[in-house]
Structure formats: structure tokens, C-alpha cells
Amino acid sequence: MCAIKRKNRGAALLLALMITIAVGLLAAALTMGYQEQVPFSRVVNIRMDNITTAQGGAELGRAALRSATSSVVTTINGDPTAVVYLVNYDNGGSLGDPTSSSDPYFDSSYSSVTDPFTGQAGASPGYSSSKTSIVAASSIAADLSQFKWVRISLETELRVGQAVTANSSLENTVLDYSPFYGRFPQGTTGVTGVPVYLVVARSVEGGNQRTTMIEAAQPSLGLDLPSAMTMLGNNPVYLSPDSNGWSICGADAGSPQQPMLPAIGVQGPNSVTYVENNIKAQRLDSTHYTGSSTPGGTSNATSCKDGTVAEAAPPSTPRIELARLLRRNANGLGHLLNVGFQSSSTTSTSPAIIDINSYLNTNFNTVSGLKQIVTDMSSIADNVYTSSTAPTAGPAAGDITVVQGDYALTKSNYSGSGILVVTGTLSIGSNFSWNGLIMVIGTGSIQYVNNGGGSPNINGALLFGNVCGNTSSPAADLSNCTTMGTSSFANFSGGGNGDIQYNSSDINDVYQNHSYLELSYSETTD
Fold first, then answer.
1. Three-class SS of residue 355?
2. What is the residue-level pLDDT of the chain in tens, covering all 526 positions?
3. Residue 248: beta bridge partners?
4. Can you say whether the dihedral through the CA atoms of 138, 141, 146, 150 is positive or negative?
5. Rounded CA gap, 243 and 251, in Å?
6. Whether 236 contacts 490, CB under 8 Å
7. Under 8 Å CB-to-CB from 489, ≥6 apart: which residues?
8. Burial group, residue 359, by CB count within 10 angstroms (0-12, 13-18, 19+)
9. Which of 332, 325, 442 is nearest to 387 (CA)?
10. DSSP 380
11. φ, ψ dihedrals at 382, nearest 5°
12. CA 114 to chain centre
């Protein structure tokens, strides 16, 4: 019996020893496995940090383009050889210089190395050392990612190593952008756009380097307005003030070198007659309705009511190889078309109330096009309200605001600015003033609630489009609107010395106050 017990005890001890050894081996294996994973995870973390910091630097650079944030745009001042660096490191007690080959974070693509965005060899960025500005990134924003530098410059063919015209040579001309034409050389006649900026951010950490590049441009919908006040649809209702002081002028007060527009633009000769029949005979002249006989044409008068405005030579139709310029649009805005207007030599003392039908692109004369404009404006708007939530005191100055439904801005002496889009009826009060663009697309109706007095003043432009001619109960989002109806500028009879003065500057200033759109994005690892 004792022998059996000793035998069992020995077996138990052996089993316990084997289990102990197995557990020890397992623990050792787990420990070794853990130790092997640590270096790998650190590498992953470093690479992810590099991506994040490079992206953060690029976003800071994009924000720095806004005039309200920094003086980057002012410093570059349209010069294709200028570059601004936002430096985020200390180089031996002084601000770093990425343009110097002795700098630890030298920007090799500053002088001759191919830009990482294109990958094409032989392109020289075309910067000038005399036009280089280096500023501390902390002067732009307090909350910084740990990038090393951000380079900001205007985009040119030479800089991206890509020709955008039929001429295959690479030029150092600034490239502009519009949603329809894509990129094109600045100064191309008959085409309007906004400059494209290249924002390049460099991040270096743990021996890993990351370069992030974006193309950025101001928000631009390519809305080349055809007239100071555009009334779409057949036979629009125009009940203007009877005062001798009332006028509409298509000369560009904000940029006098630009061609004049008609005072009022309508669709079809019958609409011209219909509008003119609602104006007193003694007011139906070029003094009260000043502008060109065609969009971009020659003026019918030498001055607006408020004074002489210089007129530039009219533009020619753009000569651009569109197939080479079309590219992916920004935020889906590519279907809004720019229009190159033919010039005209017609001059007269007749009112500049013009049939603009042949100059309109499909976005202005179709229901779907006008509804798409509302959708696109909503996509970049600062605020989108319903009638019940829209502020009665008016939108914030300089904002892009969309109101779905009716909107009443009837407070006496109200003054506002920005871009306002209303899908219902816009009601305004006495001495109403606005600097910017007002588009009433939906019911296409604006009414003055103080009939018989007041002086509404609008510096910018007005556009009306009734896309709800098929229903008396349009949805606030225009979803049940399918047919063009009659637009209306009503209940303005009586006194008043107001005016509508076309002003492109007041419209463009709204875009300047908004973040630059990201047109493209790329990353490279060195």
C-alpha cells in the first residue's frame, strides 16, 4: 500500500513540474511576443503622427489664406514668384529657413526638384528668393500641430509641371479656377475665376517624413450675373417706385474696369415690353436704367445716377481648349457655368432693359438649374434657416444665408450684407439696404411692405426666379416645384429715392471671408 502511495505522489509531482514548465514557457513566449510588438507599434504610431501633423499643417495653411486670419494673401499679392513659409521649429535659437540647404528641414522642392503633387520630372517651381517671406507659425494660430513648415504660393503651370493650355510650354503665369472651366491662365479674356493656391505641409518625426499638398481656392460658384437685376420667366411683374430718384445701374461700382451689365435683364422681347409698360414714360430712359445693351457690351449712358463710372473694353469669347481644362469640380459645384459674353457697340439713350435670353446658360433658365443653384449655395452657406428659425434681425453681416420659405426683413432702416437666398417671398421695409447678392429662387418674389415711401438701396445684384409656377403651395425645399412661373418685384409704387447699383466687389467680399475650398489633395512619404 505504501509503495502505491509513493508512486502516486511521484506522478503528481512530475505532473506539477511539467505544468509549471509549460506555464513558464508560455509566459516567456508571450513576453517575447509583446517585446517584439512594441517597436512595430511605435513605428506605426510615428507614421500616423506624421500623417496627422502634415494634414494639420496643410489645414492651418488653408485657413491662413483668409484675410481675416493673416496677411498671407496680401504678402503674396498676386505675384507668381512669391512664397510664404509658416515655420514651426527653432533652428539654433532663430527662426528656421526651409529655403537654405544647410537648414535641417530644407525644402528641396523650393528651387528645382519636381513638385510631389505631379510626379513629373523637369518642373521648376519658379520661386524667387527675393520674394520669400518666413513667419512663425505661432503668429498665425496658437493651436499648432507639430509640423515643420507650410509653404504657400500661387499655382502656375511651371510650379505644377503641367500645361493647361494648347501651348505645351510651362509658363509662370498664375492659374485661376472656375467650376466649369477648371484651371486656366489668369487674364484669359471672357472667363472669370479665382486664383489657385498651393499649400504644402512638411512633417518630420522619428526619421519619417511626410509631405501633404492641397490646391485651394476661394468658394466660387461661377455665377456670372447677366444684369444688375435679373428677372427670369415670362412677363415678370415690375412695379417700380415712381420717384424720379429711383434708378438701376449696371456699371460695376466695385470694379469700374469691368464691362457694364444691363440694368434689368429679362427673357424675351415680350418680357421687355411688359416691364417697360409698368414704368412711367418720363422715367423710361438711360438716366434711370443705365447699363449696356448686352451683358459685357457698351453703355447706353455716360454715368449712373450717383456719378460717372468708367467702362472697360468688353471681353471677347474665351479661347480655351475646354477638354484640357475640365477636371473634377470642388464640392460638386461644377455644373454652374461661367459665360463668355460677346461685345456690342450699340449705344443709345434708351433704358437698359434687355432681353438676355440668348446669353443665359441652362442653370438660369431651367427649373432644375435654378434649384441646383439653391442646393449648391446651401452646401457652402454659413446658415440654412426655415421661415420660423430665420433671425428677424437679419443674418450676420457678410454671411452666406439660405432661408427656406418666406422671409421678412421689414424692420425700418434695416441694413445687411452678404449673399442671401430665399425660396419663398422676401418682404422688405422702408429704407432697406443691402450690400451683396440677393437671389429669390422659388416663388421669385420680392415685395415692399411700405408702399408709397422709403428708399431701398441695394449695392450688389438681384436675381429672381420663380420655379414654382405649377403650384400655389410650394414646399420650402422646392421639392414639388417643376415649372417656371412669373417673377415679381412688386408694391414699390410711390415715392422713394433708392436704387440698385451693380457691385461685384460687395459680392466677392463675401467669398473672401470664407474658408478656401480644397480642390485636390495628395500625400507623399520620403
1. strand
2. 444 445 555 566 666 667 666 666 655 554 444 444 445 444 445 456 667 888 888 888 888 887 655 688 889 988 999 999 999 888 877 889 998 888 989 888 886 544 444 555 545 677 888 899 998 887 776 667 778 999 999 998 888 777 777 666 778 889 888 766 778 888 777 666 789 999 999 988 766 788 888 998 887 665 778 899 999 999 999 987 778 888 999 988 887 767 789 999 999 999 999 999 988 888 898 889 999 887 766 666 656 765 545 443 333 333 222 222 222 233 333 333 333 333 333 445 789 999 998 888 767 878 998 998 898 888 788 899 999 999 989 998 888 999 999 999 988 889 999 999 999 999 998 889 999 999 999 999 998 887 555 678 899 999 999 999 999 899 988 999 999 999 999 876 655 678 899 988 888 778 767 778 888 888 776 6
3. 289, 500
4. negative
5. 21
6. no
7. 229, 231, 236, 237, 238, 239, 240, 446, 462, 464
8. buried
9. 442
10. H
11. -70, -35
12. 29
Phi, psi of 162 (to 5 degrees): -145, 125
Q: What is the mean pLDDT of the chain?
A: 77
| φ and ψ of 524, to 5 deg | -135, 155
Between vectors from CA 44 to CA 41 and to CA 48, what angle results, nearest 5°? 140
Residue 220 CA to residue 462 CA, distance in Å, equals 17
238, 227 in Cβ contact below 8 A? no
10 Å Cβ neighbour count for 440? Answer: 26
What's the pTM? 0.64
Q: Tell me the per-residue pLDDT of 261-320, one tens digit each, with 9 for 90 and over.
A: 999 999 999 999 999 998 888 889 888 999 988 776 666 665 676 554 544 333 333 322
C-alpha cell at 498: 433708392
Helix (H) or strand (E) holding 459: strand 457-466
Residue 75's H or E segment, with its range, is: helix 72-76
Which SS3 state, helix, strand or coil, does residue 297 take?
A: coil
Over residues 129-169, the pLDDT tens digits come to 889 999 888 777 666 777 899 999 999 888 877 777 766 67
What are the start-end ranges of the H helices in 356-398? 362-365, 367-380
Neighbours of 5 (CB within 10 A): 9
Q: How wide is the angle at C-alpha 372 spanned by C-alphas 193 and 506, nearest 5°?
A: 45
- SS3 for 381? coil
Query: Of 290, 311, 343, 326, which Cα lies nearest the Cα of 501?
Result: 290
204, with CB counted inside 10 A (0-12, 13-18, 19+), is: buried
Q: What letters, b where the CB count within 10 A reaches 16 and e where it falls short, cover 451-484? A: beebbbbbbbbbbbbbbbbeeeebebbbeebeeb
Residue with cell 418682404: 427
Output the CA–CA distances (angstroms, integers) from residue 467 to 65, 77, 258, 364, 423, in the order listed.
Answer: 37, 42, 31, 11, 9
